[in-house]
Structures are given as C-alpha cells and as structure tokens.
Amino acid sequence: MTNFNIMSLGKIIIVEDDSLSARLLQRNAEKLDYEVVGNFSNPQEALECYKENDVDAVLLDFQLGDEWDGSELNARIQEIRPVTVIFITSADDDESLQKILTANPDGYIQKPINSRELRAILQMAIYKTKQEKALTELNETLDEKVIERTRELDVAVTSLVKEMAEKEKVQLKLERALEAEKEFSQLKSSIVSNLSHEFKTPLASIRSSAQLIKAIGDKEGRPKEQKHAHRIEKAVDSLTDILMRILLVEKDQDAVYSAEIMTFNLAEFMKGLLQESQFDKVDNVSIAYEEQLAGVEISSDKRLLKQIFINLISNACKYSHPNGTVYLTLNIENGTLIFVVKDEGIGMSSETQQQMFHRFFRGDNVGSIEGTGIGMSIVRRCLDALRGEVNVDSTEGKGTTVTISIPIEG
C-alpha cells in the first residue's frame, strides 16, 4: 500500500515481515507527514522498489527471518546508493543491540514504537544524512572547481612560460640589433667626420683661390673673372653648409651644438641670409619679410641661428604651391627673439606634426617634393642648444605657421 503526501517531510520505505507491525508503522509515519513509498515484507521486493525510487530513509526490521537479516539487506541497499537506514527491533538484550550497532545503522528504534520516538529518530537520522549528502556534494563541487582551476592555471602557466621564452628570444634579437645599429652608427659617424675633414681642406683652398682671382680681377678691371670667382665662392659656401648640416645630424649634441655666442647686427644678418640663400628661386615663391630692427644688435650663435632660419624658410618655400608667398616676421620682445614663418602650402596632418622633428621623417603628403627629412631635426637640436622653443600650427591642405622663441642678449 502506498500513500502520497504532497507536503511530506520525506519519503520512506518500510521493510517489516510482521504485517501488523508494518501497518502500525506506516500509519504512524503518515501521521507524522512522511510519504511511505512502499511497505514490504519481502526483502527482494523492497530492493527493487528502492532501485526505482529516491527515498530519504528506510525503516528496516533487523530480524527478517532465516534467509535475510537487517545487516545483509542494509549492505545491499547501500551498494545501490547511500541512504538513511533505521533498524527496528523487538530485542532488548545487550548481545542483540551490539549486533545492530555493528551493522552501523543511522539509528534504531525498539518495539513497540510510539509516534514521538519515531518522529525524533526520523528527523535526526534524515537531517544527518541530508547534511552529509550536502557536504559530499559540496566537496565534489569544490574538487571539480579545484581541478578546473588547476587546469586553467596549468594552461596559463604553460602559455606564460612560452610567452616569456618568446620575449627572451625577441629581447635577445633586439639587443643584437641595437648593438649592430650602434656599431653601424659609430662607423657612419666616423666616415662622415673623416669625409668632412677631407672636404674642408680642398674647399678652403678653392675659396682662397677664388678670393685671389676676385682680387686680381678687381685690381685689373676684369668683371667677368670677378663674376666667376664670386660664383665659385658661393658654391664653396653651399658645400660647406651642407657638410655642417650633415655633421649637425651625425655628431654628438654636446660636441657640435654648444652655442658660440657673439654680438652681431640682426638686420644685416637676416638680409645677408636672404640674399645668399635665394629662396625665391624655388618655384617662383615670393618672400614677404617684415622687421623693424635697424641698428639692433644681439648676442647669440650666428651659426645655429642660420641653420634654424634656413631650414624653416627652405621648408616653407619647398612645400608652398608654385607662385605662392612665404611670410616672415622677425621681432624682439622682452629679451626674446621671435621668428615666424608662415606659408599657404600643403600643410601637415596632426600625425605628421607629432613626428616632424624626428630624423629622416617626411610627411605622407609630400609626394615627389625632394627632401632628406633632416631639416627639422636640425632645427630642434639647434633650438635646444640656444634654449629656444618652437610652436607649430598647421592644417593639411591649408598651410603651416612655425613660431620660434629664442632668449638673447641685446
């Protein structure tokens, strides 16, 4: 007989070979709100029922007859799956009770059984079993998490070890490349220095010879020879300037960029620079120059100032549109030389402006316009030597304005 109770405290199976005791036990259990899944006198039938139903407890008569005893049936039940087993017994002698305890049940109750004792033993036994089950499940879950986490850590460690090994290889390659670059740079600087030295001596001789020819032509009234001698001087000056620019880029900053202060007339310096350089010959670009510096003398490094001015004006002319105009403004404000170069040429993107002072860098919009990419690097390093500052305002396609500020002694 089976009775289902939706609000039951738990499901139980009763195994009792005495029919009267079995009925009384079931009645008491149901009154206590337990659902009796099955009530059997046959142990084999009880086992089959247990296989098919998930129950919370089994009430098992310890003395089932000659073929089975409670201890054997309990062992068979636990083999299927663990469950709370409470032995029922009519024995009260020490030997019988010792046998029951040896079978290791979750509890036992003696006949005759009353509801209070049954409630207490069922509640305690089922609670104990549920707690043990929950603890087992928790341990299994934790074990699974530990295993999974360990697996993840193993993968992470393996990946990290591999990554570190790759980084070490890359680092080694980088160190070798840097060492090779350093050696190459030293070799290149040595070659440049030697070539510069080798060029300077013959250039000085050529210049001296040109000056001599010019002097003779002037004395003897030979304007044609004077003209050619003057052209030779300009060519020598141009080559000398190129050599200096190369040295400014290649040599150590402290050795080459230390300022050599001298006092000179700023207006005459600027006039001579514009006449010598002939910037307006580049695509017929016009130079609009504004200054009010008549008679003003300053103390600075003419050599470095010349490099700054020439490179800025040259770039403005080079990157202007044909027949365009480059605007130059030169002033002194509060002991600071302010030089502004403005063009209406191709301009620069913000990305180009961020890199324009790097050696050999050229913008991506210069097209076929010739250039080496060292001019602005020279400007930057010359300004550093003179403790100057630079500001660039440029819009691609609209032009560029470069403003430099250099402290001077007037």
UniProtKB/TrEMBL annotation:
The keyword Coiled coil applies. Residues 194-410 form the Histidine kinase domain. The keyword Ribonucleoprotein does not apply. Residues 11-126 form the Response regulatory domain. It catalyses: ATP + protein L-histidine = ADP + protein N-phospho-L-histidine. It comes from the Bacteria. CDD domains: HisKA. InterPro entries: CheY-like_superfamily, HATPase_C_sf, HATPase_dom, His_kinase_dom, HisK_dim/P_dom, HisK_dim/P_sf, Sig_transdc_His_kin-like_C, Sig_transdc_resp-reg_receiver. This is histidine kinase. It comes from Roseivirga pacifica.
